[in-house]
Amino acid sequence: MAARRALKAVLVDLNGTLHIEDAAVPGAQEALKRLRGTSVMVRFVTNTTKESKQDLLERLKKLEFDISEDEIFTSLTAARNLVEQKQVRPMLLVDDRALPDFKGIQTSDPNAVVIGLAPEHFHYQILNQAFRLLLDGAPLIAIHKARYYKRKDGLALGPGPFVTALEYATDTKATVVGKPEKTFFLEALRGTGCEPEEAVMIGDDCRDDVGGAQNVGMLGILVQTGKYRAADEEKINPPPYLTCESFPHAVDHILQHLL
Known about the structure:
It comes from Lynx pardinus. Belongs to the HAD-like hydrolase superfamily. A hairpin with a 2-residue loop joins strand 9 (148-151) and strand 10. The two termini are 20 Å apart. This protein is 32% helix and 20% strand. It is α/β, with parallel strands linked by helices.
């Protein structure tokens, strides 16, 4: 890892770290205000594919989080950027609420498959349609490959198992655009003027949030909320820079030890 420099930016995961669906993590709003009272830049990075950025922003505002749209970088944005770059017509295997983030993208006569979390669409007929496109040479773009995520009623399957099934059936490899990909974190930092060695990532996913961030040179703080399960911190090497109870505790540590 490159030498540490003075902290300039904090990247924060959303679902599982600041909130779980429609409930804020206790004390998270106040902790965010304290973090904003410092000189660091704050950016929010999320793999969510269940809703558009606009819907996500409205949810956060209802929970009284002071966040603006240009501070949020989503894996949907990263996927759209790649679709435009490759100039393909994707079959969009995403939740209907995420479709506004692909507005203007040509999807008729698809020649690519973009897959996110789409519980309503993950059935045999649709997956078989994707399978056939891939067999004909269409590229597979995975918005992310998370194994599972946290809902109010417990843990639930993420898109990862479905992406892996399509990879296995077609003997292809997906291009993954969300966390933990290095390009995702570097893209999220773009515009802040910060290097990875000047940034910290806070999240509840040991692999996608913390492992991904640390692989690119950031410090990673794992919070024990959301999808966290006992001993998650032992699943990555190097281990998280810090494992703590929740987002407010992570902010306390930053204020006391990193600034």
